[in-house]
Amino acid sequence: MNVIITGASKGIGKAVAEIFAANGYNLFLCSRGEVALYKTMEELLTKYPHIVVKAKPFDLSIKDQAKEFGEWCLGYGQPHILINNAGLFEPGSVYNEPEAVLENQMAVNLYSAYHLTRMLLPPMMEKKKGHIFNLCSIASLNAYENGGAYSISKFALYGFSKNLREEMKPYGIKVTHVIPGAAYTDSWSGSNIDPKRIMEAEDVAKMIFAASQLSPQACVEELVIRPELGDL
Ligand SMILES: NC(=O)c1ccc[n+]([C@@H]2O[C@H](COP(=O)([O-])OP(=O)(O)OC[C@H]3O[C@@H](n4cnc5c(N)ncnc54)[C@H](OP(=O)(O)O)[C@@H]3O)[C@@H](O)[C@H]2O)c1
């Protein structure tokens, strides 16, 4: 079974790669930077030598590169699970964030998933089999001070994911909107947050993996996962 994970060099994407690798799935990974990406690939291959792990750097905020990543994945065969995880968190407010922030956040957090998914859907639709996970956020559900372009882009990704779920029902393709609250990753480096106050990336990964294991006739539509003490 082939699993495609975007933004897999660190954080939640890397934790998801780890749990699928441990369970014998083949992985196709990308991120922009190549050093951390290839390190992740090598770590996984060392720990799980019986699986296939391929990785290549792409900047998914650029439409052509998102499509090229899709083509590259298709070159290795049928896609079974797609995890649209790559994302960027830039805090700000509508009234004063720099003008390009919205365009950039939309490109990384929404258009990347849109274009890559469109590349991978035809073989999934043909086989009537597949599962797509979209990494939304609590910022997809709740407006908050300092949400700005990030929150706008995550509301949009949630809309994309919900539409896709309806469209794919007749094709046997499951769509899950993953909606985590704060989880400790590089997104939080530089903040003074106590890692124990928020979730671990592995918590999100475990729920994604569990949702991928149900019978073909069951679909987890939404995974809302929060720190035990609630949102920050
Ligand atoms: N951590 C949280 O608290 C939290 C909460 C809710 C939702 N989320 C969502 O969960 C996802 C993962 O978050 P995270 O905290 O694990 O982030 P992270 O630690 O910052 O990792 C992000 C990953 O995405 C890659 N990436 C970023 N921009 C990219 C681009 N243009 N093209 C390709 N890859 C790109 C990064 O690698 P490069 O930088 O090398 O490209 C990295 O591998 C994001 O969509 C985020 O919005 C996170």
Account of the 3D structure:
- The chain has 232 residues and is an alpha/beta fold.
- It has a single domain, classed as Rossmann fold (3-Layer(aba) Sandwich).
- The chain is 42% helix and 17% strand.
- The chain is built from 6 helices and 9 strands.
- It has helices at 11-22, 35-47, 63-74, 100-127, 148-168, 201-211, and strands spanning 2-6, 26-30, 53-55, 81-84, 130-135, 173-180, 183-184, 199-200, 222-225.
- The strands form 2 sheets. It has a 7-stranded parallel sheet with strand order 3-2-1-4-5-6-9, sandwiched between helices. It has a two-stranded parallel ribbon with strand order 7-8.
- Helix 3 (63-74) packs parallel to helix 4 and helix 4 (100-127) packs parallel to helix 5.
- The longest helix has 28 residues, at 100-127.
- 43% of the residues are buried.
- The model has no long low-confidence stretch (mean pLDDT 97).
- NADP nicotinamide-adenine-dinucleotide phosphate (NAP) binds at residues 6-13, 30-33, 58-61, 85-89, 108, 135, 137, 180, 182-183, 185-187, 201.
- The site of NADP nicotinamide-adenine-dinucleotide phosphate has 31 residues, from helix 1.
